[in-house]
Amino acid sequence: QVHLHYGAALLTAAGNEKDPLQQGVFLDNAFSHLRKANDIYPSYAEPTYDIGWAYQKIRINYDSAIYYLNLSLLRAPKYSKACFTLASVYESMGKQEMASYYYNRGAELNPYDVEGVEKRNRHHKATGLDVKVFPFAQNKDPLELNTPDGQKDLAFYNKMGAIYGQKGDVDNAIRCLEKAVALDPTSAPALVNLAICYGMTKSYDKSIEVLNKMLALYPNDLQALRALATSYEAMGNKVKLNECEAKIKALGGG
After folding, report:
1. How far is CA 99 from CA 24, 88, 110, in A?
2. Pair 72, 43: CB distance under 8 Å
3. What DSSP character marks residue 140?
4. What pLDDT band is residue 200 in, cutting at 50, 70 and 90?
5. If 65 and its partner were Cys, which of 55, 92, 185, 251 is the partner (CB 3.0–4.6 Å)?
């Protein structure tokens, strides 16, 4: 946790710094520590969220912000703060349907986030939009459209699942990851990412089914256990949630 907390402190310093050169030094050091935190805890959402936030607020790069914020949502589908920040990014880019979708999603996940809900209401009043289904969910990425069928193997569908997931297009991510699992039912990346995507669509029974299959193959996989705990928490199953958390703690996951 040291790299995560120090990286966050450096981001605060960068945000308060008036000198552009010194601000750049703070940011570069912050990104270095946050990436180390991400390497140590690859299933944690906070390091990638903090990087995405910085690309939205300080070193403006909206494509990078979207990439890192969607990574944080893949790891923690109920992370409302990432949804509200994504909404702000899309609003700044003029992509108001996407902004409306993520404002609504953030408000659904955490209706008690006063600032986020106020932003959602302001955006709705200004645009008249109230989008609750991911826009353009049927659009396929050019890479998928242009790749010959004979080259669409396990690695391809895993990659496409990640690409769609990082865009926030969960429907297409699920479609590709289901194909990946069909090609190799033991693929840990395909299984855990498919389960997480099911969780993002509130298909918790499907998510739990996939995760239990994965844990039968890889009993000590912390990412799968954390995803399973998230699904049980969302379903209100405290007994199963406590079982998962106890096993995560026993494995040193904290």
Report:
1. 28, 7, 16
2. no
3. P
4. confident
5. 55
Average pLDDT (107-126) is 96
- CA 143 to each of CA 139, 148, 159, 163, 203: distance values in angstroms, whole numbers, following the listed order: 12, 10, 10, 10, 28
Dist CA 127 CA 105 (whole Å) = 17
Question: How far is Cα 48 from Cα 234, in angstroms, rounded to an integer?
Answer: 23
Measure the CA–CA gap between 207 and 192, rounded to whole angstroms. Answer: 9
Q: Looking at residue 59, what DSSP letter applies?
A: S
89-97 long-range contacts (CB < 8 A, ≥24 apart) are: 89/56, 89/62, 89/65, 90/66, 91/123, 92/56, 92/62, 93/62, 96/123, 96/127, 96/129, 97/129, 97/131, 97/135
Q: What is the DSSP letter of 139?
A: P
CA distance to 4, 37, 220, per residue, from 40 (Å): 10, 5, 16
pLDDT tens per residue, range 32-70:
999 999 888 877 899 999 999 999 999 999 989 998 998
For residue 43, the model assigns a pLDDT of 78
For tokens 């979708």, name the residue. 101
Closest CA to 81 of 54, 59, 103, 97: 103
Contacts of 52 (CB under 8 A, 6+ apart): 64, 65, 66, 67, 68, 69, 71, 72, 82, 85
Please answer whether residues 123 and 116 qualify as being in contact, where contact means their C-beta atoms are separated by less than 8 angstroms. no
Average pLDDT over residues 1-15: 93
Tokens of residue 172, six digits: 């297409």
Q: Which helix (H) or strand (E) holds 86?
A: helix 80-93
Give percent above pLDDT 70 in the chain. 98
